[in-house]
Amino acid sequence: MTVKIIVALLLLFMIYNLFKAMMIMLKNEPGQGSMTKFIGRRVMTSAIIILLLVIAVATGIITPNPRPF
């Protein structure tokens, strides 16, 4: 259950960074932060999610659905 909560929070963080980058791109103000910082955070978050899921499946914390056949 803890892994699912962590993954859900990481997904929300990833969506937040996506919208933050979109707002910077649309406003185009020179004094504001770089859009690439938020896109980079989004990519790093997705890599952490994939790594967390692989580790959780490998250790048996979560189990994948059985094959249908």
Automatic annotation (TrEMBL):
InterPro entries: DUF2909
Chain segments annotated as transmembrane: 6-23, 43-63
Keywords: Membrane, Transmembrane, Transmembrane helix
Pfam families tied to this protein: DUF2909
Protein name: DUF2909 domain-containing protein
Taxonomic source organism: Planctobacterium marinum
Biological classification of the source: Bacteria, Pseudomonadati, Pseudomonadota, Gammaproteobacteria, Alteromonadales
